[in-house]
Design a protein that fits this description.
This protein is α/β, with parallel strands linked by helices. The protein has 2 domains: about 70 residues, Winged helix-like DNA-binding domain superfamily/Winged helix DNA-binding domain (Arc Repressor Mutant, subunit A, Orthogonal Bundle); about 110 residues, Rossmann fold (3-Layer(aba) Sandwich), CATH 3.40.50.720. It has 9 helices and 10 strands. The strands form 3 sheets. The protein has a 6-stranded parallel β-sheet with strand order 7-4-3-8-9-10, sandwiched between helices. Helix 8 links the parallel strand 8 and strand 9. Helix 1 runs antiparallel to helix 4 and helix 2 packs across helix 3. It is elongated and about 60 Å long. The N and C termini lie far apart (about 50 Å).
Amino acid sequence: MTSPIPKATVRRLPIYLRFLEECGPNTPTVGSEDIARATHGSAVQVRKDLSHVRCSGVRGVGYEVDELRQAIAKALGLGVTRRVALIGAGNLGTALAGYPGFPASGFRICSVYDKNPRRVGMVLNGMAVRHVSRLLQDAVGEPYEIGVIATPAAAAREVADLLVEARVGAILNFAGVTVQVPPEITVRNVDLATEFRILSYYLT
């Protein structure tokens, strides 16, 4: 059985992958120093991280870009389409529904939900917004792997419970509050207000 990749490494691998995707055809190989310089890390940490993705570099030459890109993508479980349910059709939800980076990376927002009567029925990126009460019924026929919470904070915990009942495997939470889910479900919290506060520190 393959050992799980450390969580800190999992957080860095997408950053390495983005750098590799930006390498042009004139860059067939890269060294750990190149990756570290571009991603603001250390070459030692890069080599340690990449040891988990079964791709060996050659001393004095580096890593083959295409091979390393494929190895990281495989380690991250990319290369397959992941079905996503987006809950919240406000300003943030509207922006997320139209973000081209999701389908380009294999994440397909299949349905958008809201409970506001003024938003239900509106069309976002070719999808009619459905009432959130339909989520469980929709998930029976074609289960969602990921749920995205883009609701106000007051509704986030209720939506998280609904996603747990719909048996999603992971939740991306933009609501700015902590949600409680069973340990087998992975939650990533993206608190934009907190991020701005961190930036404020560096401006002081």
